[in-house]
Amino acid sequence: MKRRGMSLALCAAMAMGTIGVVPAMADDVTTITYWVNDRHDSEYMTEMVEKYNKENTDNIYIDMQIITDDYENMISLAYTGGTAPDIIGQSVTLKNFVDNDMLIPLNDYIDADEEYQKVNEPYEHAYEGLNYMNGNLYWVYSGMRSGVRIEYNKDLLEENGFTEIPDTLDEYIDMAKAITEAGDGEYYGIGFTSSSPFERQLEMIAQVSGIYYYDYVNGKFDFSGYKEILEKGKRFIDEDIAYPDQQGVDNMRALFAEGEFALWGNASQEAGVFTSQLPIEDFEWGVAEVPSLDGEIKGALQTTPSKGYAIMSSSEHPDEAWKVIQYLQSEEVLKGYLENGFCLPITTYMDEKIDKSKIGRLADFSLLDYESVYPAVPTINLTGDDYRTVLWNAIMGYVDVDDAIEDLNTRYNEAYDADIESGSVKRLVIEDYDPLHPSDGTATYLDK
Question: Which of the residues in the chain have pLDDT under 70?
């Protein structure tokens, strides 16, 4: 939306809680509205937006608004009502927005900008169903969150005769059991949260063991591979190895930081948590790779790309919106963003440009050779509990392992088939799928 005149732009900025200062040299300012749902980096991004609003010579004013609740639905409602922002963050379901023609492909802008290509390596980070569909790139990621790591209490391990995290799941469980038994109720070997507990350790152990819930080659859901993981994982509960209470993530983080248990699983956001939010001061803590079933890496560990910018098709000023994206993904802005530890670098170029001495413990979560981004699994209209809930219920002993797997295979594939028949989704097949390089295959979408 374009706002004419300094006073009108400034009044609108104040009324809407916008960030920054309207450029003083401009009599006619183009306002580019940007909606974002990130809060952890808001101070730095506010500073960068204010800098741009003061210094840019294109008469562009960035109106950045932080939308924390119901982000995707708020954007959809605004689009329908004709009040959508020009730019949105990447935290939306790509297929929904593409199917409704809500986004502008960025290919032409990218192809005409060599500097942007050099810094952001866009086509090297085009991920099927996440930011890329039908040959079109809709946003480019600036960074990456690591896959799950094992955060561990070095002191507790050493007190009990351990110096490192084992390579196999059996040895990992045995170590946790030995620590719990030695603790005799004062401390435990491992802790699990009540918030998606299967995802934070056992599911990732399955991934690096070559086990995944979607069969890309045959285009169907298949949970059969989890049987061995579940049977072994049940030991944590059956043998009273785990901390006896599963609480929310922040509570369990606090308990780990207090030395209540030795092993915790989560991704690179824990670098900031355990140095700033809940600083660990009473013991040394380490970071290790998750084990696998047999000690061999047979599949990629899932990572999460982050911080991308898309242009809404309703924008009256797409060229100006692209100039804003150029700035937000410039070497200058990204260098500060990455050195502040908000995420890991996704590009080789920026990885070489940043001063890694400034990122603190985030360096412990540097991406591994076998970490990758998986193609987006089709979203289906599922009835009943999702797979992570059901599989954790099997770990807890609430449901039989075989029954859980049969239930998931039946419900997921029946829902998938029904959605394909109704035309709401297509079957994703990647015939040349490689579990160690899941994003490298060629995706095909079938109508049956």
Answer: 1-27
pTM of the model as a whole: 0.85
Q: Using one digit for the tens of pLDDT, what is the confidence trace for 200-232?
A: 999 999 999 999 999 999 999 999 999 999 999
Q: How far apart are CA 409 and CA 429, in angstroms?
A: 17
Structure tokens at 101: 């023609």
Alpha helices in 94-224 (DSSP H): 94-99, 107-111, 114-120, 154-159, 169-183, 197-200, 202-208
Q: Compute and round to an integer the Cα radius of gyration of the chain.
A: 24
> Are residues 39 and 139 both part of a single domain?
yes
The last residue of a domain, from among 367, 388, 403: 367
pLDDT at site 8:
32
Phi, psi of 75 (to 5 degrees): -65, -45
Q: What is the pLDDT of residue 40?
A: 83
Predicted local confidence at residue 27, as pLDDT: 63
Q: Are residues 151 and 69 in the same domain?
A: no
CATH code of the domain in which 432 resides: 3.40.190.10
C-alpha 45/C-alpha 37 separation (Å) is: 12
Find, among 137, 104, 6, the residue nearest to 321 by Cα. 104
Question: Which domain-ending residue is among 316, 349, 367?
Answer: 367
Alpha-carbon distance of 339 to 363, in angstroms, equals 11
Q: Domain count of the chain?
A: 2
